[in-house]
Design a protein that fits this description.
- The complex is a heterodimer.
- Chain A has 2 domains: 4-246, 3-Layer(aba) Sandwich (Rossmann fold); 253-386, Rossmann fold (3-Layer(aba) Sandwich), CATH 3.40.50.920.
- In chain A, 41% of the residues lie in helices and 19% in strands.
- Chain A contains 13 helices and 15 strands.
- In chain A, strands 9-11-10-13-14-15 form a 6-stranded mixed sheet, with helices on both faces. Chain A has a 5-stranded mixed sheet with strand order 4-5-7-6-12, with helices on both faces. In chain A, strands 1-8 form a two-stranded antiparallel ribbon.
- Helices cover 36% and strands 18% of the residues of chain B.
- Chain B has 10 helices and 10 strands.
- Chain B has one domain: 3-Layer(aba) Sandwich (Rossmann fold), CATH 3.40.50.970.
- Chain B has helices at residues 28-42, 77-87, 99-105, 107-116, 161-168, 181-193, 219-229, 233-237, 241-244, 261-275, and strands spanning 49-53, 68-71, 92-98, 121-126, 129-130, 136-137, 172-177, 198-203, 230-232, 248-255.
- In chain B, strand 7, helix 6 (181-193) and strand 8 (198-203) form a beta-alpha-beta unit.
- By secondary structure, chain B is α/β, with parallel strands linked by helices.
- Classes of the chains: A alpha/beta, B alpha/beta.
- Chain A binds chain B through residues 28-31, 34-35, 37-38, 41-42, 45-46, 53, 55, 57-59, 83-84, 87, 112-113, 115, and chain B through 55, 71, 73-75, 104-105, 107, 130, 132-134, 136-137, 139, 148-152.
C-alpha cells in the first residue's frame, strides 16, 4: 500500500519521475528547480533508476538533448524555470511539431530584470503558445499526480505531444507536504512502456522536422492545432483512470463553493488554496462568493469552464503576470474571448497579483471581491488592475 | 606602495549595500579586493569603468561596486560587455563572472570574444561548481571530485580555461588563486592595461558547497589546497610531464600583440566615412 509521507515537493516530483521510469534526463540547474534534478541525478547515480542523466551546459542544450532522446524513442524528462525556460524557447516549439512526448516540470518564477528568483507565472506565459499541453498544480500531491498523468497522456499515440506541468516556485517546490507516493506496480499499470509510432531507427530511416515550404506550412500548423485540441479527450480519460487506479480525482476545471455564487474568483496554481480559505471566510460573512480553478491551461477547456462558471454574475480573474502594453493578463483575455457576446454571460474583471514572490493573502482576495462587486455596478476605467501595490 | 588597509578602496564600494551575501570564508571578497586595488594602482577614472556580470554568487559583485555596472542574464556577460565596448571604446570594460557563466552556459561567447580580441578584461571566479544553486558540478569541476550532481565523483574532464583562452585567440591569459592575493593584483593590473582580450582565471574557494564534499570543508583548507597545487608558470615549464599532472601553473600563461577589434572596426568606419 502506498504510504503518505512528509516530503519536499521537489523530491516527491523526482520520485514520481523515478516511478514513471524516465530513461533520459537532460537538465541544467536553475533556482527553484534544482532539488528536482539533484535528486534525480542521485537516484540515477545510486542505480535506483536505469536512466541517463545528462548535466548539459545550458537549458538550450537541455531541450535539444530532450528532442534527440525522445526522437530516438526514450522516455524523456527535464525540468526548468524562468530564464532557463526562456533559454529553451527556441527549441520548445520543435517537440510538439515533431510529436515528441517530453515531460517538463516548470517551477514557475519571475523573469529578469530586475532579477527575481521568486514565484509568479511570467515564465510560462511567455511560452503560452509553444504548442505544449500545459497543466497547473495546486499542491504537492497534485504536482506528483500531474507528473505521472503527463507521462501517460504525452506518450499516448493519439496525443504524442510534450507536456509542461507547472508548479509554483518555492511555494510548492520548496515546501514539505504530506504526499502519497504510489506503489511501483500501480504506476506500471497506469503508464505502459513507451512505444512511439515513429522514432529514429537506422533500420527504418525517417526524417523529422524538415523544411515546410509555404505550400504545406499552414496545413502542418493546423494539424498540430487539431492534435492538441483532440488531446483533451485523452487527458480527461487519463484523469478518470487515474482516479480508478489511485483514488484521486482531477478535472480540467475545478470549482469550490460555486453553487449559487454570484461572484467567482478565477485562479491557477497554488494561490487557489489561499483563495479557498478566503472564500470560506467571505461565505461565513454572508457573501455569495465561490472559486473556479483552472488546472488544464492548454488545450484550454472552454466548454468545461463555461459549465463551471457560466452562471456567475461576476468573474474576478487573477493573473500572475503583467504583460506590459497588453489589454489585460493572459487568463483574463482568454476568458473574455470565451464569453464574448454570449447572452447572460458573467461580467469579467481582470486583476494582476502576486508578482515576483509577493504573497497573495486572504485579505487580497477579499479586496479583489470587493473591487469586483463595485465594478459590477460601475464599470472601471481600466481593463485590469494590479492588486497589492505598495503605497510607499 | 599599496597599503593593506581598506581605506584606499573603500570609496569604490557601495558601503550602504554591505554586508554582502557571500558566505563567511568565500574567496569572492579576495578577488573583489584585488580588483579594486588594481583600479587604484592604475589610477583609473571610476567614471570610465564599466563592470558587467552574469548570474551567480560572484556576479552579485556588481551590486557592491560604485561604478557603472550591469547585472545581466546567466552566461551573457561577455556579449553585453562587447556591446558596451564597441559603443564606448574609451571605457575600461571588465567582466566579473563565475565558471558557470563563462565556461558553461556562456562558453560560446568566451571563445568568440577571445577570437575577436576585443579589449575587455574577463576575470573568471572559478570556484569549480555552481555555488548559488547549491553545488552542482560545472565544466571546471575537477575529474573525480564530488558535487550534488556527481555524488560519486565527476566523470567528465574539466576545461583548462587558460589553454582554451589561448587556443581561441586571447592575447593576454593569466591564472591566479585567492591564496596569491597580492600577485593577483599585479595580474589584474597587467590584464586591464593589455590592449586586447584579457582572460584572468582566479581559482577560488567555495568550502560551503564544493569543499565540504571534497575534504576541504573550511576556507583555510581551500586556500591551503590552492597553495599546494599551484606553481609559478616558470617552474611549471621546467617540470617533467609526470610532475605537471599534480600542479596547475599560475602567472602570465600567454601574452602577445594582435590587432584589437574595436580599433580595427574604427578603421573601417573611418575608411567608409572618407569615401563619402
Amino acid at each position: 500500500m502506498a504510504k503518505r509521507v512528509g516530503v519536499e515537493v521537489s523530491i516527491a516530483i523526482a520520485e514520481a519521475v523515478k516511478l514513471a521510469k524516465a530513461e533520459v534526463i537532460p537538465a541544467y540547474p536553475i533556482t527553484p528547480q534544482t532539488h528536482i534534478v539533484e535528486h534525480l541525478s542521485e537516484v540515477v547515480a545510486n542505480g535506483e533508476l536505469d536512466a541517463e542523466f545528462i548535466p548539459v551546459e545550458s537549458e538550450h542544450a537541455a531541450m535539444s538533448a530532450c528532442c534527440g532522446s525522445s526522437a530516438a524513442g526514450a522516455r524523456t524528462f527535464t525540468s526548468s524555470s524562468s530564464q532557463g525556460l526562456s533559454l529553451m524557447s527556441e527549441v520548445l516549439y520543435i517537440p510538439p511539431a515533431m510529436r515528441l512526448p517530453i515531460v517538463n516540470v516548470v517551477a514557475n518564477r519571475a523573469m529578469s530584470a530586475p532579477i527575481s528568483i521568486w514565484n509568479d507565472h511570467q515564465d510560462i506565459m511567455v511560452q503560452r503558445d509553444i504548442g505544449w499541453i500545459q497543466t497547473f498544480a495546486e499542491n504537492g500531491q497534485e504536482a506528483v499526480d500531474l507528473t505521472l498523468h503527463a507521462f501517460r497522456v504525452a506518450e499516448d499515440r493519439r496525443v504524442s505531444l510534450p507536456i509542461i506541468v507547472n508548479i509554483d516556485g518555492f511555494t510548492l517546490s520548496h515546501v514539505i507536504e504530506p504526499i502519497e507516493l504510489p506503489d511501483q506496480e500501480d504506476v506500471d499499470a497506469y503508464i505502459p512502456p513507451f512505444k512511439p509510432k515513429y522514432k529514429l531507427d537506422p533500420r527504418k530511416p525517417i526524417t523529422m522536422g524538415p523544411v515546410g515550404i509555404p505550400e504545406v506550412y499552414t496545413e502542418a500548423k493546423m494539424l498540430q492545432d487539431q492534435v492538441i485540441k483532440n488531446s483533451k479527450k485523452v487527458i480527461l480519460k487519463a484523469w478518470k483512470e487515474f482516479a480508478e487506479q489511485f483514488g484521486r480525482e482531477y478535472n480540467p476545471v475545478e470549482t469550490y463553493r460555486t453553487e449559487d455564487a454570484e461572484i467567482m474568483l478565477v485562479t491557477m496554481g497554488s494561490i487557489s488554496e489561499t483563495a479557498m480559505t478566503a472564500v470560506d471566510k467571505m461565505r461565513d460573512a454572508g457573501k455569495s462568493v465561490g472559486l473556479v480553478r483552472i488546472r488544464l491551461w492548454r488545450p484550454f477547456p472552454g466548454p468545461e469552464f463555461r459549465k463551471a462558471a457560466g452562471k456567475a454574475k461576476v468573474l474576478a480573474v487573477i493573473d500572475r503576470t503583467l504583460p506590459p502594453g497588453a489589454l489585460c493578463g493572459p487568463v483574463g483575455a482568454e476568458l473574455r474571448s470565451l464569453f464574448y457576446k454570449i447572452p447572460g454571460s458573467p461580467k469579467i474583471f481582470s486583476f494582476v497579483a502576486g508578482l515576483g514572490g509577493r504573497d497573495v493573502t486572504v485579505a487580497r482576495f477579499e479586496e479583489i471581491v470587493e473591487k469586483a462587486t463595485g465594478y459590477a455596478k460601475k464599470r472601471p476605467k481600466e481593463l485590469y488592475e494590479v492588486i497589492g501595490v505598495r503605497e510607499k | 606602495m599599496q597599503s593593506n588597509g581598506l581605506s584606499e578602496i573603500k570609496h569604490l564600494l557601495r558601503t550602504h549595500r554591505l554586508p554582502h551575501i557571500w558566505c563567511p570564508g568565500c574567496g569572492n571578497g579576495i578577488i573583489t579586493q584585488a580588483f579594486l586595488r588594481a583600479v587604484r594602482r592604475l589610477d583609473l577614472d571610476p567614471d570610465k569603468i564599466c563592470i558587467v556580470s552574469g548570474i551567480g554568487c560572484s556576479s552579485r559583485v556588481v551590486e557592491y561596486l560604485d561604478f557603472d555596472t550591469v547585472h545581466t542574464a546567466h552566461g551573457r556577460a561577455i556579449p553585453f560587455a562587447t556591446g558596451i565596448k564597441i559603443a564606448r571604446p574609451e571605457l575600461n570594460v571588465v567582466v566579473l563572472a563565475g565558471d558557470g557563466d563563462i565556461a558553461a552556459i556562456g562558453g560560446n561567447h568566451f571563445i568568440h570574444g577571445a577570437r575577436r580580441n576585443i579589449d575587455i578584461t574577463v576575470i573568471i571566479f572559478n570556484n569549480s561548481n555552481y555555488g548559488m544553486t547549491g553545488g552542482q558540478y560545472s565544466p571546471l569541476t575537477l575529474f573525480g571530485e564530488k558535487a550534488t550532481t556527481a555524488p560519486y565523483g565527476m566523470v567528465e574532464q574539466p576545461f583548462d580555461m587558460c589553454e582554451l583562452a589561448r587556443g581561441a585567440g586571447a592575447t593576454f591569459v593569466a591564472r591566479s588563486t585567492t591564496w596569491h592575493a597580492k600577485k593577483l593584483v599585479d595580474l589584474i593590473v597587467q590584464g586591464v592595461e593589455h590592449r586586447g582580450f584579457s582572460s584572468i582565471e582566479v581559482i577560488t574557494g567555495c568550502h560551503v558547497n564544493y569543499g565540504k564534499r571534497n575534504c576541504r570543508e573550511t576556507a583555510v583548507k581551500m586556500l591551503q589546497w590552492q597553495k599546494e597545487h599551484s606553481v609559478p608558470i616558470e617552474r611549471f615549464h621546467s617540470m617533467t610531464e609526470e610532475e605537471r599532472k599534480k600542479y596547475f601553473p599560475v602567472g602570465i600563461i600567454h601574452s602577445e600583440t594582435r590587432p584589437e577589434y574595436t580599433e580595427e572596426y574604427a578603421k573601417i568606419t573611418r575608411i567608409k566615412r572618407d569615401d563619402r
